[in-house]
């Protein structure tokens, strides 16, 4: 074929339909009419001489050929974005875009501070923060849709050979009590005191529960004797419940800084027990790193790190013939509970 049988706009439309699940929602997301989307798909199928969608059901489902085109189309669109960003870099940080990924807790409580610091240094650079589960965020980094990310969960095993995973910071999961609780006046809480508390936790599908249970068990605490008063689906809801006197909870220390300063929550110390997890900085060494991303890594990330980031993160990434294997995996977190393996198009 002398000419390509598709355009970039058609690939964008295909991606939107696959993501939104319908022609109408895809059209709305692209700010075009539904007939225009349908016409582009018809032209694309005619040019390729294959059907791209099964039109029998209510949801637009890709055929095998549609999945194949979407897979390559994602790579093509990502390379186009990288090309544009490389050209923008010629302006020497007087423009361009930085795209940072994060898992739920880090994206809500840690990354906004780091991004704020970066914006002070480079106000002309547009910054995007994508907050999803660790699994989805890892795929986005691997696909080049995100420059780098800070996560608290387990990077998928199938990606650990292609991503650089660097210890970034320790995150303490603190025991919090209502400020009026009798134990708030104690210098430290004994292990035995935990069995008398009513606990509030994330829902049963949350893997952060497993993290906490594992650490507490290592410290000689029988988690089966802990009383679960209620399950909630967000950290903010848990903090509000504890503040209202409904029970105690374990939450990331980064999530309660404001409440501790205001005195509306009490952070309790447990004799001989520290519940920690590791946050991880991840990037794809085989993808182009923009000047904005490089400035973020060198000038901002270290200000909030508790580990030496080292040359793995600071070194200018270059393609390598054999990626290094990550020997240690991070603890799972509350957001990384998806059991499905997303394709690069879903990440």
User: What Rg do the Cα atoms give?
Assistant: 24 Å
The assigned CATH architecture of the largest domain is: 3-Layer(aba) Sandwich
Question: What's the N-to-C terminus distance?
Answer: 32 Å
If helices are DSSP runs of H or I spanning 4 or more residues, what is the number of helices? 12
Report the oligomer: single chain
CATH hierarchy class name of the largest domain: Alpha Beta
Q: In this structure, how is the largest beta sheet organized? A: 7 strands, mixed
SS-derived structural category: alpha/beta
Q: Which stretches are poorly predicted, pLDDT < 50 over at least 5 residues? A: 317-347
Shape: globular
TL;DR?
This protein has helices at 8-20, 23-30, 34-48, 64-88, 104-121, 134-142, 191-194, 208-218, 235-243, 257-262, 291-300, 310-314, and strands at 53-54, 61-62, 97-102, 126-131, 148-151, 164-178, 198-202, 227-232, 249-252, 265-268, 276-283. It is an alpha/beta fold and 347 residues long. The protein has 3 domains: 8-85, Winged helix-like DNA-binding domain superfamily/Winged helix DNA-binding domain (Arc Repressor Mutant, subunit A, Orthogonal Bundle), CATH 1.10.10.10; 91-169 and 278-314, D-Maltodextrin-Binding Protein, domain 2 (3-Layer(aba) Sandwich); 171-276, Periplasmic binding protein-like II (D-Maltodextrin-Binding Protein, domain 2, 3-Layer(aba) Sandwich).
Topology:
Elements: H1 8-20, H2 23-30, H3 34-48, E1 53-54, E2 61-62, H4 64-88, E3 97-102, H5 104-121, E4 126-131, H6 134-142, E5 148-151, E6 164-178, H7 191-194, E7 198-202, H8 208-218, E8 227-232, H9 235-243, E9 249-252, H10 257-262, E10 265-268, E11 276-283, H11 291-300, H12 310-314
Parallel strand pairs: 3-4, 3-5, 7-8
Antiparallel strand pairs: 1-2, 5-11, 6-9, 6-10, 6-11
Helix pairs in contact: 1-2, 1-4, 2-3, 5-11
